[in-house]
Records
---
Amino acid sequence: MAGICLLAAGSALPAAAENSGYAPSGSAADSSGSDNTAFPAAKAAPDSVTGDLNRDGKINATDLALLKRGILSENSDSGFKQAADVNESGAVNALDAEMMRDFLTGKISKFEKGEWDGPSGPAVYPKSYDFPPVSQLHASNDVPDPFIFADGSKVESPDDWWKRQAEISCMYEYYMYGIWRDGSDDETSYSISGNSMKITVKRKSTGKTASFKALISLPQSVRHEGGAPVILGMHKGISESTATANGYAVITYDSDGMFSAPGTAADNNQHTGAFYDLYPYGRNWDEQTGDLLAWSWGISRILDALYGGAAKELNINPDSSIVTGVSRYGKAAAVCGAFEKRIKMCAPSCSGAGGLALYRYKSEGKSYDFSSKGGSSRYTYDQNEPLGSLQASGEQGWFNGRFMEFKAENQFPVDQHMLAAMCCDPNRYLFIICSCQNENWVNAPAQWMTYLGAKRVFDYVGLGDHIAINVHLQGHAVIEEDVKYMVQYFDKMVYGIEPKTDLSVLQTSVFALPQNKDSFADTFTAKWIH
């Protein structure tokens, strides 16, 4: 079974199965057959026994929670085994939980005998930075094919794609964002006081320490089994109250000194702050980590703290984490989701150039009808953020030194659909947020093009439902609308909870309407091999 490890008795379930239980506030799911109206993800049982653990005639998250508990407690009851062995293997284990989860989330329509052969996933590949210098790169207006390796060889199978994904990761480090510090040289500790958490990191190889702060907002009641899912914000003001009202915890983070300067990485080109105290910015390219990855490192250390005990104290499930941020912090959220594989879902908002806006698509001078969203019937975009702005003194600190060598966007051997495709993973999700009106600079139509390009990759490996987009009317923010869609999408995909609203809108946008559609959307992938 691809992507799942066999477990010894008493072992924890893998993330996909561990996150799949859901219990109503103030109670735990049980097998009494009591009212299950709090569990809307019900489906008719494939037969009268299999999968229906509480014998209520339907299969939903209650049954999945009971299945998980039975595995952990090594339940040997014959009735439990008969109902829980959904793959008819003769044993009840994580493979059954995975198959039931895939049934509840719609990946399969019925239980199959034998292990569920879901999509394969990323593996660990040796890093290589054997790429040509910027001066040797050939400019091209064609959007780079994500299915062609740097040496010209082709992706010929989904397994090949994961190797290509690893290569793309190295390309982004080398050409754009700098070295990703993965935490292997970090020792993280934390302290919690009220709604504040202090993160202290010791770099093991040097003995140096540095600290930064985060703020904690908890829901009044926890409705998800295993603890509240947690939204990790690059900054405050991400509709925290909407998230907590839906049972989600929120931790907002001192990325650049908003709480106490200079924070993790000051938002300038001086490379100061907690991250650079530990990892000084040097002259060599492999000593150069830009602010976007430095801010991402801070989110990773928050995860370390959660896994190191803070999650238990706060009743948070760190396996169910979402990273988000807006504008430059939307760029950072996109980068964080691409590199930090423990993040369950990446949800960057209004990230623009250097984030999830396709460099090679400009909306300048194009007019759109936003009346279907309550906006202008003829809205014309003016200037999009150019490369020169990203390379100017106010923004160049976000990137590495090599990024300054590029003369034009069409020199990049990558484009941002490939950054989005770094979130492609059987156990992870991407939720793009942008605003169509009054957001000319961040180029929302180019973020739609990124979604379309990335979805080709997600579709290729059988994960087309792991990517979503919400284009709200206006607001350079993570607005209430975004959070409502975000948590319903996350609940459905991770917990198997049916949404209250139609989530098919998250597979399209106002830019796909006939009056707004650009033929570029249908043609820029035409030369790709898949």
Note: The radius of gyration is 23 Å.
---
Amino acid sequence: MKNIFVSLALLVLTVNTSAQEVVQDSISTKTLDEVLVKSVRVSADSPITHSNVDKEELEKRNLGQDLPILLNYLPSVVTTSDAGAGVGYTGIRVRGVSAQSTNITINGIPYNDAESLGTFWVDLPDFSSSVESLQLQRGVGTSTNGSGAFGASVNILTDAVSDEASGEISNAFGSYNTRKHNIKYSTGLLNNHFEIAGRLSQINSDGYIDRAESDLKSYFLQGTYVDDNTLIKALAFGGHEVTYQAWYGFDPATIEAIGENPNIDDNRTFNLGGIKFDEAGNFEEFYDNQVDNYKQDHYQLHWNERWDGNWSTNVGLNYTYGRGFFEEYVDDYLYSNVYFEQDAQFSFLGIDPITVNGQNISSQDYVRRRWLDNDFYVANANVNYKDSKLNLTTGLSYSTYDGDHFGEVIWAQYASDSEIRDRYYDGNSNKYDFSVFAKATYRLNDKLSLYGDLQMRNVFYDTSGTNSDGVLFEIDEDYSFFNPKAGLSYNLDDKNNLYFSYARANREASRSDFEGNPDIKPEQLNDFELGWRHTNSKFRFNANAYYMSYNEQLVLTGALDDTGTPIRDNAGESFRLGLELEAAVQLTEKFSIQPNITVSSNKNKEAFASIDGELVNLGKTNISFSPELVAANAVIFQPTKNIQLSFLSKYVGEQFMGNTDSKRSKLDEYFVNDFNVTYEIKTNKIFKSILLSGLVNNVFGEEYVSNGYYYTYDDTWTVPGETTTIEGTGYYPQATTNFLLGATFKF
């Protein structure tokens, strides 16, 4: 492990702490495990809007699809898959906010990439199999570690300590040659104190989209020491993904320009990735290694300690090592005559033109690899004091990121004077993030509690060298953010709870934001939440109204960069106003339903666009990728304790892919239904139990699109002296009816 000695030094020099649910008697191992995330999670009656998901819920549909897909039926959630079937690159939006503005922590450690701010679940395949529980907070939520949340935060707790020895073998097969295999084990507590547990997984899929194959491997290893007041955990987990690129989507204009069928209804699975042409522009074939190849390893160390009946602490350290590349065939005809980009030119690579058989050659086909090589260190420190009235948590977090970005040419049509693996760009980035917070819940009486949360965060971001376009890329930014939060919670009785909260959050821009606009500004959010929770034995109902007021919100423009990353830009003043309703109803002993619905209005208060060569004020417009209606429901039938049948429905209303309300940029609404069945066989022989699972996705074969992109460019050459704005769109079609079947043997 690279730089392991630095991690050990941090262990010696750092004092870190976390909140803990203290009981007056002994503390169970489960409670000690939950300490890892108490500093970033909230309790059931807190004034923070949230949903909890446990291991049992994930297990029912955990047949190889990424974690975002398993969260698809939570309130205000919209998910998508580049490959179309939930394996490979997947995405999640909450309240219309992109994944770059959603904070993810694993055992309290930030998982978002420090520089891009994104989360790439493909780097941790089958991670759902090692999740004990998670909490999705909508809105700003509570103070957390890493970059601030602007739409949601997902706080994940990995597998808890197991008192008993166990083992598990799981296999799943399904459509598009999808298959998943994993093996898990736990020694249980040895000598009542020590446990070793682990998992190995492999997932493969051909994908719904042409050539969108995934070859995914992952591991999870955990060593634990526990006693009445102490929990020490050492974890190592990671993954290696090789996926054929499917991030180009279905772009009708480009597909038509290269002479292919541009009708998405007739050719939903077309993948532009790796396409090759001859010099006359005739299609030849697809490059067979147009892949994304990336490895990521995480090492965590946590020490949770209960000192007495009131005080507890937690120490958490992390080192993440990521490295990999995406390989790309740069076709001269495609880049020069369709994209009108310079990538195929010798000058782009920094080499001189050559003469071949008396002909001057200044461009060529070649194969390049664009590399990332990065190190990420985190140290968290939290302390908790709790008595009958006060629950106080203070803490700090420090992280440092060092990332290299460089490009290599591994094959070229003409050798010229270049060498294999010549770097045509080379840059480095450093980012330092320090935050300190204090938050408390004070119970005035049996009915009323007050909540306060103050966070200071300082971010330094520095880059040097050149970017992937070979352009000097130097950023030197230093941000100081103050993020206050306050709220109150009132219990009308033992069944009804009312809450109100206010939270401010500030967030810096990402690397790609700076590449698109060196003058990009940080965004600020003021979030107001008002809710009512009702709970009884057969009926649970949550109603939440929110108003999210933004200044310089970094909204998706609809366009993509050349790696498929969504481009963002400041939107001035904007807001999101919505109502979320969520229920769980036990209709009979065997039937229950779990509906939720979000109705919202998401607006830029004033939008400007360049149209036909003139800057136009469009007034109030819809924020991109923000449907006004999102709804879901689960109808659950459980005829016996061991059998459960679930019919799952999801509706997403129409949405715009840009911020100009252009009809061309509109994505149609869609309504999709899945069917899930689980049957657990209890046995006293070789296995303790056998869990059989089945999942039919998109039961009625809906041909829908859950994501896409929208772009414009100015045509100044068709009519000399005139500028005409041309609009273009691309789409990510999702799979029609498909299935997954699995069996898990537990012993």
Note: Residues 4-746 form a domain with the Maltoporin; Chain A fold (CATH 2.40.170.20).
